[in-house]
Amino acid sequence: MTDRTLTATRRSHPTGASVVAVTGELDHHTAHDLTRAIEETPFTPDAPVVIDLTGLSYCDSTGITVLVAAYNRAKQAGATLVLAGLNADLMRVFGIVGLDQLFTFQPTVEDAISALHP
Q1: Of 58, 36, 48, 118, nearest in space to 83 by CA
Q2: Is-contact 61 50, C-beta < 8 A?
Q3: Residue 39: CB atoms within 10 Å
C-alpha cells in the first residue's frame, strides 16, 4: 500500500501575498490538508494568493475540486489567485479538463509575484 502524504503550508510573501506551498500527492486521502490550508488563508482584494504546486507529484479529481473551490473563494472575495510551479504532466491534465481556461499559471512563485506586482 502506498503511503499518501501531502503537506500544505502557508507563508506570507514580503509583498503581502499569501503563498500556500503544496508537496506530495493531492487526492481523496489528502485533500483535507490543502482544504484546511486554503480555509486558513485570507482571500482579499489587496492580498493575492499563490498556490505553489512545485512539489505536487499527483493530483486526482478530488484535488482538482479543492483547487476549483479555492478559485471560487478568490472570485467571491475579489482576490487574485495564481497557481505556480505545475509540472508538465499535471499541466497537461489541467489543460485536458479545461482548467487552463479557469486558472492563471506561472512557472514559479517569484514569476507569479512579479506578474502580480509589475
Answers
A1: 48
A2: no
A3: 11
Please say whether the beta carbons of 116 and 48 come within 8 A: yes
Q: Does residue 102 form part of some domain?
A: no
Cα 44 to chain centroid, rounded: 16
CATH code of residue 49: 3.30.750.24
User: What DSSP character marks residue 97?
Assistant: T
Q: Is residue 69 part of a domain?
A: yes
* Local confidence pLDDT in tens for the 118 residues of the chain: 455 799 999 999 999 999 999 999 999 999 999 999 999 999 999 989 999 999 999 999 999 999 999 999 999 999 999 999 999 999 999 999 999 999 999 999 999 999 987 6
pTM, 2 dp: 0.94
Number of domains in the chain: 1
Residue 113 lies in a domain: no
Residue 46: give the domain boundaries: 10-87
How many other β-carbons are positioned within 10 Å of the β-carbon of residue 34?
Answer: 25
